[in-house]
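Technical annex, item 7. During the second reporting period the consortium partners agreed on a shared format for inverse folding records so that results from different sites could be compared directly. Each record opens with the tokenized structure and is followed by the designed sequence. A conforming record, contributed by the partner at site C, is shown below for reference.
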């Protein structure tokens, strides 16, 4: 059985063949195109998840108020009867400014802000979400 020889243009004795180099180039271009899209989708999912957790925390604070006649003294008072497990702030936004008035520090570079006199729960983040809204105003 004879082996087929490649033309000299596609074969290089010292390194990669031209076809292999083109294949690597195409893979790299696809990765450069796919990775930012993936990171955008992940950031969007994290923001939607955190926005849902914010709404759940607000409902839990209101339920606490209805059952006990006063707002909880801190967000930790909601756990485990009203909220379990306690949600994390995940926004997918690196390097945003965080204020120091917080009740509970969460693991993923985000914080919940809670005012026990009004029962107001917010996310302590001055950055903008994917739609251009300031996250603190959610």
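Designed sequence (site C submission):
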């Amino acid at each position: 059985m004879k082996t087929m020889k490649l033309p000299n243009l596609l074969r290089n004795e010292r390194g990669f063949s031209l076809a292999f180099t083109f294949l690597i180039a195409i893979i790299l271009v696809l990765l450069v195109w796919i990775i930012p899209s993936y990171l955008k989708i992940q950031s969007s999912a994290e923001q939607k998840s955190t926005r849902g957790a914010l709404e759940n925390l607000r409902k839990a604070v209101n339920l606490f108020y209805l059952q006990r006649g006063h707002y909880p003294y801190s967000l930790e008072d909601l756990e485990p009867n009203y909220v379990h497990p306690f949600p994390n702030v995940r926004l997918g936004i690196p390097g945003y400014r965080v204020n120091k008035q917080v009740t509970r520090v969460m693991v993923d570079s985000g914080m919940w802000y809670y005012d026990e006199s009004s029962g107001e729960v917010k996310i302590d983040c001055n950055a903008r979400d994917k739609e251009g809204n300031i996250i603190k105003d959610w």
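The helical segments are 18-68. The first strand starts at residue 104 and ends at 105. All partners now use this format for quarterly exchanges.
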